[in-house]
From TrEMBL:
Residues 16-199 form the MacB-like periplasmic core domain. It is a multi-pass membrane protein. InterPro entries: ABC-4/HrtB_transporter, ABC3_permease_C, MacB_PCD. The lineage of its organism: Bacteria, Pseudomonadati, Pseudomonadota, Alphaproteobacteria, Sphingomonadales. It comes from Sphingobium lignivorans. This is ABC transport system permease protein.
C-alpha cells in the first residue's frame, strides 16, 4: 500500500513538490514564530528575575530596562553617584547594584559593577578569581568562548556599546582578565564585568575622594581636603569642567512590599531620576511583540490550510483520473479499505515531507538570522533549540494531510466497479 502510494506520488512529481513546498513554508513560519516568542519570553523572565526596580536617568522606561537588564539598547544617561547611598539607606531596600556602561570589547559590553551583580545571576567562577584591583575584569562564559579569551589576557576596550571600527580605543587603560565565569544561561554570559572605578579610570574621571567618602569616612575626609586643596591650586588648562563620577543605572531589590508602593513614586516625583519596574515594561514589550506575532501566526496557519486544500484538490483529481486503476485493483482482490488506505497514505506522506522540510527550513532560517542580526545574538538566541509546541505543529500538519485525503479516499467506497471499468475500458 505504501509502495503504491509512493509510486502514485512519483507519477506527478511537480504537483507533489509544490504541495510539499507549500506546507514547508507554513511550518517554517510557525516554527520561527514559536521559537522567537518562546525564547524571548523565557529570556526576559530569567534575566529580570529578582530585580524589582531599575533606577536611571530620565527618559524612556522601556529603554532603561532594555539597556540595564538585557543590555540591548543605549542607556538613557547617567545619574549621580549619591543615588547609590540614597537608596541603600532606604529601609525598604534589600540590595542596590550599580552599573556603569559606556565601552565594549569587540561588541561585548564592559559593565562596571560590583561582584554582587554576578552573584545575583548565580554565576560561579570557572577559572581565576573575582575582579578586585584596577582594570581587572571577569569574562562571561559566552564572551570567553566566542573570543577565545584566556586568564591573564590583556585587551583594550572601545568607546561605545557596539563594535565600531571608527570608535576610539582606550589604549592608555588596558584591562586584564583575572577570572572566567561558568555558563549561566543568562545575560551575564555575554558581558565583561569590572569595577565601577575601573570604568571611571578608563574615561579619565577622577574618583579618589568619592571612593574614600564611601569606604573610609575619616581618612577620606582628610584626603579629600588634601585633594581639594590640590585641585584648587591646579590650573584648568582645558577650560572644561571636570567629569564627575556617575553611574548609569541601579538594580534594586526590595526588602519589603512597602518599597514597591512608595519607592517608584518617590523617585519619579522628587528626584531627577526615573524608576522603571521590569515586570511592567517587559509585559508591555511582549504585548507589543505579541500583536505582530499573532498576526504572522494567523497567516502561517492560513498558509497551512491552503496547503491542505491543495493536497485535497490534487488527490481528488488523481483519484478521479485513476478510477479505472483503482477499480481494477478492487477486481484483483484489493479490499476497499486497502485502496482507501493508499489514498490516505498519499496525503500523509505529503504532509510528513512538508512538516519535516518546514522544521529544517525554519531552524536554518533562524540560524541565518542569528548570524545576520546581532540583536538576536545579544539575547542569547539559540536557533536550534526545540520549543515545546513544535511537536504540536507537526501533528497538526499531519492531521491536515489526513483530512485533505479523507474525501478523495471515501470515493472508493461509492465506486461502481462494473460501470467504472466499462467507462474506462
Amino acid at each position: 500500500m505504501i509502495r503504491l502510494a509512493f509510486a502514485y506520488l512519483r507519477d506527478r512529481p511537480l504537483m507533489t513538490a509544490l504541495n510539499v513546498l507549500l506546507l514547508a513554508f507554513a511550518v517554517a513560519t510557525l516554527v520561527i514564530l514559536l521559537s522567537v516568542s518562546t525564547q524571548l519570553g523565557s529570556r526576559f523572565e530569567r534575566d529580570a528575575r529578582g530585580i524589582d526596580l531599575v533606577v536611571g536617568a530620565k527618559g524612556s522606561p522601556l529603554q532603561l530596562i532594555l539597556s540595564s537588564i538585557y543590555h540591548v539598547d543605549a542607556p538613557t544617561g547617567n545619574i549621580p553617584l549619591d543615588s547609590v547611598d540614597l537608596l541603600r539607606a532606604d529601609p525598604s531596600v534589600r540590595q542596590v547594584i550599580p552599573l556603569a556602561l559606556g565601552d565594549n570589547f569587540r561588541g561585548y559590553r564592559i559593565v562596571g559593577t560590583e561582584p554582587a551583580y554576578a552573584d545575583h545571576f548565580g554565576a560561579k567562577l570557572a577559572e581565576g578569581r573575582v575582579f578586585a584591583g584596577p582594570h581587572e575584569v571577569v569574562i562571561g562564559a559566552g564572551v570567553a568562548e566566542a573570543l577565545g579569551m584566556k586568564l591573564g589576557q590583556r585587551f583594550v576596550g572601545s568607546h561605545g556599546l557596539e563594535a565600531d571600527e571608527g570608535a576610539g580605543e582606550h589604549e592608555h587603560s588596558p584591562f586584564t582578565a583575572v577570572g572566567i565565569l561558568a555558563p549561566t544561561g543568562s545575560v551575564v554570559d555575554r558581558l565583561i564585568l569590572t569595577s565601577v572605578q575601573s570604568v571611571w579610570d578608563v574615561h579619565g574621571i577622577a574618583h579618589h575622594h568619592e571612593a574614600e567618602e564611601h569606604h573610609d569616612d575619616e581618612a577620606g575626609e582628610h584626603h579629600d581636603h588634601e585633594a581639594e586643596a590640590h585641585h584648587e591650586h591646579e590650573p584648568n588648562l582645558t577650560g572644561r569642567e571636570d567629569l564627575k563620577p556617575e553611574v548609569t543605572a541601579l538594580l534594586v531589590s526590595y526588602k519589603s512590599a512597602f518599597g514597591a508602593v512608595r519607592l517608584p513614586i518617590m523617585i519619579n516625583r522628587q528626584t531627577n531620576m526615573q524608576a522603571a519596574v521590569p515586570a511592567i515594561e517587559t509585559a508591555r514589550l511582549l504585548s507589543l511583540l505579541g500583536v505582530g506575532i499573532d498576526g504572522a501566526r494567523a497567516f502561517a496557519w492560513l498558509l497551512a490550510a491552503t496547503g491542505g486544500l491543495s493536497i485535497f484538490v490534487a488527490l481528488l483529481a488523481a483519484a478521479t483520473a485513476r478510477e479505472g486503476d483503482l477499480a481494477l485493483l478492487r477486481i484483483m482482490g484489493a479490499s476497499p479499505w486497502q485502496v482507501f488506505g493508499t489514498i490516505l497514505a498519499e496525503g500523509l506522506i505529503i504532509a510528513m515531507a512538508g512538516a519535516g522540510a518546514g522544521v529544517v527550513l525554519g531552524h536554518a532560517a533562524l540560524a541565518l538570522a542569528t548570524r545576520m542580526f546581532a540583536q538576536l545574538g545579544d539575547f542569547g538566541f539559540d536557533p536550534f533549540a526545540l520549543p515545546p509546541g513544535e511537536g504540536s505543529i507537526v501533528l497538526a500538519v499531519l492531521a491536515i494531510g489526513l483530512v485533505a485525503a479523507l474525501i478523495p479516499g471515501l470515493r472508493v467506497f461509492r465506486t461502481d466497479l462494473v460501470r467504472t471499468l466499462a467507462r474506462t475500458s
